Amino acid sequence: MLSLNKDHNPLTNKELIGSFSEYKDGLQNLLAETDTLFQELNPLPEPAHTSSFSLKNVLHGLPKFLLSTSSHKNQDPLPQIETDEEGGIYPDWKKKLDQALIHLEQEIEQEVNVRDFGAAGDGITDDTEAFRKAIGHGRAKVLIPAGVYITRGIRLPSWTMLIGAGKGLTTIKLHDKAPRGRQLVTNASHWRGNHHIYVQGMSLDWNVERLDPYKKTASGNNQSSCLTYAHVTFGWVKEVEGINPGLHCFDVSSAIYTYFGDATRARRSSRYIWLDQLNGYGFGDDGITTHHSVNILISNCHLCDPSGRSHKEGFSNSNGIEVDDGSRNVMLLNNSTTRCFGGVEIKAHHNSAAASNTQIVGHISINDNRAYNFRHIGHHIETDPESKTAFNIKASHIVAVSPIRTPLYKDSTPRAMVISAYKNVAINHFTVIGDPEYDYRGEPIIAVQYRSRNIILHDLNIRNFKTAGADIKVFGGPHGADSVEIRKVKIRNSAPTAVHIGPHIQSIKISDVQAVCEKGNKGLVVDQSNAKIEDFHSLGYKTPISIANTQQA
Question: Which residues belong to any copy of the Rhamnogalacturonase A/B/Epimerase-like pectate lyase domain (predicted)?
Fold first, then answer.
């Protein structure tokens, strides 16, 4: 079985993901197909949110007024995906970021070496003051030769480039006396904001060993990470490794996280950020996360093996890549995750706007508990309020290999994909591979549930989940899913039931499904739903199709 360690080279992800693909018409055609599928959904519009204005309301809700804004402000459609001269794939807004990099390089007034300011890089000496002097007030390119540099934290002003000799060569490590909430590298002013900051070529060791091994490692909000961009416009992080942070390896954030309810986003967000060729492991919460930020590109990254120590033991929602509260226009390109709770989680807490307008192009998840987990917490069941903000996900050319149970979240069942509460979701070309010897305890592998709407699953290849309950299950009932289409699916030697459709679903379409199983039970089960079925072919199942107490041979 395929296994990736913390030293995996993420630049090989594109080739690795392609090795699982049966799509032969090229990635450009695949992305065009995904766009067509998304438009076929006739995407539900995101509602506008209004609030009454009065002096009393403003005074009573002053913290909310100062720290957050309505989520509908600055809403825009999903960015278009474009190709550059080298065949690279990027969101259309990246051209603005590329121009900002040219501007940054033009504004640099001096290139300095941190050693010239007294940095020892010997893993013993406190080099904090040397970094402070070398960085100055910005407009500097600061070179960091190979070595281990002990600091109490580095804060970067606008117009700054921090360049090391490479991962594992240049290491910046937190001082043993640094407090638990310290961010190892961050921008100088979270409240006023910074711009044009570039970090490249180093390992960032949060030095978790300095803490009591039995205590939680994070101190709250957006503290305790290896690298945090909080309220940064135009930022780059390239070829950097995050090691054992208390919270996150890499956090693209607003000045602070806010929780004033669904349909609210934090003010002072980060914008136009590119994270590329990053590795991270041992994280207390997530490897890479975004909060309340807009126009983020995450490419060629590998995240694995969280500690989960920012959470109560056994209840750690530690994800490889998390697109969280209030984020918009985030694109994930050719990344990999392994042995996390979630490989990719797109979500929000119940009291924040959901992440929206997220696009995934190429991802491989190996042994994550939930390879792809899309949800708005607290907006699921019939008694919950319906999410106002969980909209718009596209995912193309993705792979899930052997999701498994994890001590990170002890009661969570393995899933290749879960879609909960989100509307307008197009999944295209999804390869799902199980371990035929693993005990999936009769659970479904792909679950569409909890008020999700306008969902299309297209071009799925599923195999080897022999002990699962169903390969695909669409949950029904009063808080179930609806408006779901399952199209062009191949299932080989997998669960006893290929597709299970729950009760009381008003709109469900199933077409072009081929399922083959040596000892199958039911190919298709439809429980009292208005299913439209076309070209469903099953072989090796005792009952090929079972619809509302009728069976078809």
Answer: 112-210
